Amino acid sequence: MAEVKKVEVRAKKSRVNKNQGQIPRKNSGLYIYEPALKQYVIVEKDPKSHIQDIDKRKFLVPNDISVAQFMWIIRKRIQLPSEKAIFLFVGKVLPQSSASMGQVYEEHKDEDGFLYIAYSGENTFGH
């Protein structure tokens, strides 16, 4: 899992409000976290599937979203009705929907640094 870097931020002094006197804020050490790392994902339709084509194939996906959230993004891109099923495959593996995209990327990334995901309207690799 990727490391999260802490960045120290100092609070600014408040401006003078016309209705109130000047209230300076003390500089307190606040910490915010940098945005989650992202990886490149290439989405392709399985050639055997009879589902709609996707309008966008390349995605820059944050590490911390789940496979289920990414599947929802794909469903919206292909405008798939809620009563129809969709399956995402990484190689010939159906990833867990609760797994993060960062985990899937680390386990299945290609030599070129991309994660290739195929989608299908039916479970083509199952029995």
Automatic annotation (TrEMBL):
Domain of life: Eukaryota
Record localization: Membrane
Transmembrane segment boundaries: none
GO biological process: autophagy
Gene3D superfamilies reported in the protein's UniProt record: Phosphatidylinositol 3-kinase Catalytic Subunit, Chain A, domain 1
GO cellular component: membrane
Signal peptide: none
UniProt keyword Nucleotide-binding present: no
Database matches in InterPro entries: Atg8-like, Ubiquitin-like_domsf
Lipidation (Phosphatidylserine amidated glycine): G126
Keywords: Autophagy, Lipoprotein, Membrane
PANTHER family, alphabetized: MICROTUBULE-ASSOCIATED PROTEINS 1A/1B LIGHT CHAIN 3-RELATED
Recorded family membership: Belongs to the ATG8 family.
Protein name: Gamma-aminobutyric acid receptor-associated protein-like 2
